[in-house]
């Protein structure tokens, strides 16, 4: 009996494990691409000794392009590899990871909501059963009906939503889809998430990431700069785990506020150290042998910065992409905002050299700190809490409430009670019990 229970539990969690593995491999693909410039730039720039004679060499300007081009190309393991192998071998390793990613993705089904939007209800139910651990249909019946109602209502055209009728009109044209993008229920979350990405990329580690090895060297880190970057990678990994657990208890809003407040403190503290200890004109793009100070304080602050940014600022906006946009414009809106994010990463990494030349090491990190302070104010006044809110709750909120209203009401919970009693005629017709005022043309 005990063996059967263990097998049953394993079957329940295996789908989540497979999905998580595919997701983590995708993240690893991105992480390797992001980390590769960090490994390759220092030996090619000459700020650290390479493990072999280099045929290629970078100027500071070329290094800034190399560190940022990967991000501008995205929209159209640092982990330990840079210490163990050369940058050429890292490039070969990066070629193999996508192969395993493709294999893992083959075992993950389409999402139930996407299948419902295509009228494939049987496959949607099976997908939901798979995601919940190959459970029986009756186990997911209530959740499936809620998804079905939300999908049915979201797929109706605006006139049918207003009149609360079953929609028999043809699918929306490209022009109609573009019109959906300029509705308030799409524009407001697009503005919030885009600004979230902006404050994330221009206040934390993003701009400095490709140059971390030479930055640690410029601040005189008391350990090997390569190993210091390994520690930052491990801290980022640990922070992602803390974020995954933390949002369940304190929500996305609070964890974002804590993250960006910590970012501001770390940046300002590092800026004061650079201003007091390092000589004027000190640059991370020059090779240094004798660095003033012991470098322990800025190294610890950089470690803290790496951890605190990865606890909230980096992962949370990617979570919001799948939550805050209305169903009709979700794919397009999320794609636009994600593309803007990578453009901002490109700008932040490309301009790091210019900022350092203009403002110095202290001025650059102070600039990031000031942006973080502004980001804290923005989060405080405009970032709503989406944790424990349904997609329907979030869509109604952005359709009906002002941008400064950050309290998303749990309206769908009341609707679910109505569904169980079968007292609402719109529900019996398979439509959502939500207030259709949220879908008027004015919104």
From TrEMBL:
<dbReference type="Pfam" id="PF00083">
    <property type="entry name" value="Sugar_tr"/>
</dbReference>
<feature type="transmembrane region" description="Helical">
    <location>
        <begin position="365"/>
        <end position="383"/>
    </location>
</feature>
<keyword id="KW-0472">Membrane</keyword>
<feature type="transmembrane region" description="Helical">
    <location>
        <begin position="90"/>
        <end position="116"/>
    </location>
</feature>
<feature type="transmembrane region" description="Helical">
    <location>
        <begin position="227"/>
        <end position="247"/>
    </location>
</feature>
<dbReference type="GO" id="GO:0016020">
    <property type="term" value="C:membrane"/>
</dbReference>
<dbReference type="InterPro" id="IPR050549">
    <property type="entry name" value="MFS_Trehalose_Transporter"/>
</dbReference>
<dbReference type="GO" id="GO:0022857">
    <property type="term" value="F:transmembrane transporter activity"/>
</dbReference>
<keyword id="KW-0812">Transmembrane</keyword>
<feature type="transmembrane region" description="Helical">
    <location>
        <begin position="296"/>
        <end position="321"/>
    </location>
</feature>
<keyword id="KW-1133">Transmembrane helix</keyword>
<feature type="transmembrane region" description="Helical">
    <location>
        <begin position="187"/>
        <end position="207"/>
    </location>
</feature>
<dbReference type="InterPro" id="IPR020846">
    <property type="entry name" value="MFS_dom"/>
</dbReference>
<feature type="compositionally biased region" description="Basic and acidic residues">
    <location>
        <begin position="413"/>
        <end position="425"/>
    </location>
</feature>
<feature type="transmembrane region" description="Helical">
    <location>
        <begin position="333"/>
        <end position="353"/>
    </location>
</feature>
<feature type="transmembrane region" description="Helical">
    <location>
        <begin position="254"/>
        <end position="276"/>
    </location>
</feature>
<feature type="domain" description="Major facilitator superfamily (MFS) profile">
    <location>
        <begin position="1"/>
        <end position="387"/>
    </location>
</feature>
<dbReference type="InterPro" id="IPR005828">
    <property type="entry name" value="MFS_sugar_transport-like"/>
</dbReference>
<dbReference type="InterPro" id="IPR036259">
    <property type="entry name" value="MFS_trans_sf"/>
</dbReference>
<feature type="region of interest" description="Disordered">
    <location>
        <begin position="413"/>
        <end position="443"/>
    </location>
</feature>
<protein>
    <recommendedName>
        <fullName>Major facilitator superfamily (MFS) profile domain-containing protein</fullName>
    </recommendedName>
</protein>
